[in-house]
Amino acid sequence: MKFGLLKKLSCEITTIQGYNVIFKNVLKHYISKKYVKNISSEDIQNYLISQRTHLKDATIRKHYILLKSIFTSLFRENIIEKNIFLDIEIPKENKYIINESNVYSKKEITKLLCLVKGTELELPIQLSLFLGLRRGEIVGLKWKNIFFEENYLYICNNITRVGNITSEKRPKSNSSIRKIGFDEYIKNLLIIESEKQKELSNNGKIRFEYVLSNNDGSNINPDRISKKFYNIVSKHNLRKIRFHDLRHTFASIANATGMTIYDISKVLGHSDVTVTSKVYIHLLEDTHKNVITAVSEYIRD
């Protein structure tokens, strides 16, 4: 198997790094037991099926994409006689469906906010809970994109990390590039953070570009937020959810307070309202029932 083929893939650097991790940790040990010319479509199909016992569907799909790219390159370079992926079924990905088990209640939110008050987790958690921002959007948020007089921020950067590589880029879809307003509460939190960074700047010698920064002005590692969030949730016996589920909690609260699916979709930066409807289908069931009940009561009255 040619490891150098990974470098030829037309992908983002973080995507290639992710593929490198898959190759080194899994595929190299499994596939390398055979000569590449002797690997059959049945071998690959069995490998993908075997991974279902311990990997998520989305991760298995990445394995499929990586293997397909490698074997297609091998076929084009005449190293193998047949592209075996013509006979392999792509694994179906079960979409992550959000329900009440993925979101915090008001009581849980109150406890969490008390626990993180005054810590480095306070601001990122508030931005996710109150504005529905993704982790990468929070870490990539720059001061130049916060407009205090107009009370809004502009989301146009996303920072991700795979392995030891951090990548900053524009969001994948145009709909993720958006303006989001904020209230005085969030405004004050941002001002407090700005003042902290001014004190650390050593009279301007250290430049702080990002809202969330290390003491030297560099942007923080996105994984650090998730790890610290997991640690504090575990330590204080809060229900274990992912940091990303705080964004889902925002959507759940927005729906419960009467915000339309269209408006929720716009704030979250989804490419289409149907995306929002599919992801939050279980959370929206009560809304549908309430609409039917309201119409029924109006007609009967």
Please supply descriptive tags for the structure shown above.
DNA polymerase, domain 1, 2 domains, two-stranded antiparallel sheet, about 5% strand, 5 strands, mainly alpha
Descriptive notes:
It is a single chain. With 301 residues, the protein is mainly alpha-helical. The chain folds into 2 domains: 3-87, Tyrosine recombinase, N-terminal domain (DNA polymerase, domain 1); 100-288, hpI Integrase, Chain A (Orthogonal Bundle), CATH 1.10.443.10. Helix content is 50%, strand content 7%. The chain contains 12 helices and 5 strands. The strands form 2 sheets. It has a 3-stranded antiparallel sheet, with no helix packed on it. The longest helix has 20 residues, at 57-76. The chain is globular.
> How many structurally independent domains?
2
Strand content: 5-15%
Q: Please give the order of strands in the largest beta sheet.
A: 1-2-5
Strand count: 5
Largest sheet, in brief, is: 3 strands, antiparallel
CATH class of the largest domain: Mainly Alpha
Q: Helix segment count? A: 12
Could you estimate the helical fraction of the residues in percent?
A: 40-55%
Mean pLDDT: 84
Rg, rounded, reads 23 Å
Question: From N to C, what is the helix and strand string?
Answer: HHHHHHEEEEEHHHHHH
User: End-to-end span in angstroms?
Assistant: 73 Å
Q: What structural category arises from helix and sheet content?
A: mainly alpha
Corresponding CATH architecture of the largest domain:
Orthogonal Bundle
